[in-house]
Amino acid sequence: MLGYLRSKWQSLVFRLLFYFLISMLALAIVLAVSFVQRLRPHVQNQVLPNVERYVEYLLNDIGEPPDLVVAQRLADELPFEIRIEGQGMNWSSNPALRPISSYHFEAAPHPYEHVFFSHHRRKELMLIQRQDIRYLFQVDDSIRRGSERRHWLLFVFLGALLLVLYLLIRRLLRPLTAISEQVRRIGEGDLEQTVDIDASGELGRLAAGVKHMSQQIKYMLEGKSGLLLAISHELRSPLTRMRVNLELLEESEVRRKLIDDCCEMENLLAAILESEKLASGHAPLSLRSCQMSKLIEEVVAVHPCRERIRSRLSEVEAGVDELRFKLLLKNLLDNACHYSGEDRGEIEITLRVADHAFLLEVSDQGVGIAADELPRLTEAFYRPDSARQRGTGGYGLGLYLCRLIIEAHGGELRIDSEPGKGTRVIVELPLDNPEILS
């Protein structure tokens, strides 16, 4: 129940309705207190004298000593029940009316101290004593029932009014739901779909502002992607010529280092091109059924750290893009090797089936990553503080490219890490993979 109320409290409509309800209750309490304060002197000055005089008339009709026949006739004709006790008399017009001693009475204010009132089980009672005889009058609750019916009708009316207010507020704030959904999509990177909201005033201006912001972000990202692709394409040709010219030079340490730098730049440009193609949806997947354990073994067999890699692979067949899956696994193994070092133990690969997906886990015993840096690891060009030394290599594109490949396959990437104990990367991909990109 608390969880349901906590979730409903997040709704602006629910909170507005709650505030309306609190306001109505506060207003009702103020009016009730004010009514009681104003009614009290009226009861003392006007109502109580009339009631006391009316009861005196009834007592005069009953007579002294009391005529029980007259008392019964009055009880039958008037909305009262009567009980008489004293001088050896113990009579009641209704057997359900209890003895006077079983009720607790309070004296009326001055100058009517000889009149006593009590309230018992939703019934009003009044006691008057004449000489040694006590007269108890119980008001028929038919009057109270009529008043309660009016109260219930009032509460039903107020409930209906609250319901109408809720529906009106909900309709008024309905554009907020569409706006929040659009903002959520923008946060997730979906800038293609826009929501046309028919609203005016502040909500209309807010919706138009969100739509304009989405379009501007889309244009900026498309410009950035186009710039990266253009630069990457333009740099490939001079790099290729540089590589050819270096190969023609005589063998030397300088020549070898220059060739290594060229290879590193070529790999960086290839990663940029591949990531931008996947991010923009311009690179269709070539899906086919593959033996996953066989693909993993092929990548491990040619990896520089293959002597440190230990595999536990189940037989799994799934539809993947073979080349991109190999690139995914190579990047994961490269990260595990770079940030664990040769003296930090083995690297473990696990492949297993879970429900309608298969899980690929790559674990190392390296330096680990702080918890506050984990959410940003898959961002482009982001590198944690522990990986910014030049000796570790990389430009922060490996995990970003891995995330794009996994998302293109309809999968999920999770990273668990603890400083000083290592990192575990979990890749979850569907077994039956439809053509997600075309």
SSE layout:
Blueprint: H1 2-9, H2 12-62, H3 68-77, E1 80-86, E2 89-92, E3 106-107, E4 115-120, E5 123-130, E6 133-139, H4 142-172, H5 174-187, H6 201-247, H7 253-280, E7 287-291, H8 292-301, E8 309-313, E9 317-321, H9 322-338, E10 347-354, E11 357-363, H10 398-408, E12 412-418, E13 422-430
Parallel strand pairs: 8-10
Antiparallel strand pairs: 1-2, 1-6, 3-4, 4-5, 5-6, 7-9, 10-11, 11-13, 12-13
Helix pairs in contact: 2-4, 5-6, 6-7, 7-10, 8-9, 9-10
Distance between the termini: 46 Å
Strand content: 15-25%
- Can you give the mean pLDDT? 78
Q: How many structural domains are formed by the residues?
A: 3
Number of strands: 13
Q: What's the number of helices? A: 10
In the predicted model, the low-confidence regions spanning at least 5 consecutive residues are 386-392
- Radius of gyration in whole Å, from Cα? 43 Å
Silhouette: elongated
Helix content: 40-55%
Order of helices and strands: HHHEEEEEEHHHHEHEEHEEHEE
